[in-house]
Amino acid sequence: MNRLCSVLEVSRSSYYDYCKRKNRIDAERIRLRIKATEIFNKSRQSAGSRTIVIKMRQEGEVIGRFKARRLMKEANLASRQPKPSAYKTAKVERPDIPNHLDRKFEVTHPNQRWCGDITYIWSQGRWVYLAVVLDLYARRIVGWSLSDRPDAELVISALDMAYQLRGNPRGVMFHSDQGSQYASKLFRQRLWRYRMKQSMSRRGNCWDNAPMERVFRSYKSEWMPPGGYRTFAEAKKDIGHYLMDYYNCYRPHQNNGGIALCAAEEKPNPLSGNN
Prior knowledge:
Layout: H1 2-8, H2 12-23, H3 27-42, H4 49-58, H5 65-74, E1 113-123, E2 126-135, E3 140-147, H6 152-165, E4 173-176, H7 180-183, H8 185-193, E5 197-200, H9 210-222, H10 232-249, H11 261-266
Helix pairs in contact: 3-5, 4-5
């Protein structure tokens, strides 16, 4: 041992002190590691060090990104992160339904501008279709619907849910892509009944509806089982939990400074000029 310490230029006392510290149980670090693991598991293995820091600080812990990364490494936690998408751009609008939103995603009050979109989910050996409505004020999910048919009734059901949950608001602008469901006579009649102004993205331009694209990207990369769902009922229950509970009320959102959407909606908005 003397020869080894001499070669490494380390004193024997330092070596033995290191051995004692290595074998000592650090109860505080174990507690933090358990808490980080709980946050990680609650996110279905999608939370990275940034999310873990935000959630732990909200619970009163003093922790930084470096320590969070170390805790994740010690607990063998590897975050699932989505790959960037390459979107095509276009400048063509529908002449009868212009792009009134025009990427003005920042709003001052709830129920000013909503966005909607559809995606597909694998369930019980077939595709089912998910329609979601999002309020741009705090990016909160306010309506959703799941069906085995991607028809107008799917998007109308999601809109109806949003309209009822938000207290029958008037003067809302509803923005979507140029999908046939949103351009259908049935859906446009429902918007007219609710006194909503319709807006549509330019054809093939996903950035015009970027907040909705982000919701689906987060759901599919963070939450959706890799092999899909076994049954339609399982899919509906799990998707509802993600959208209305985890995504709305627990998941930190960078657009709101790391605050969950429900809490962010209740805070005064500095853009409103009423603070």
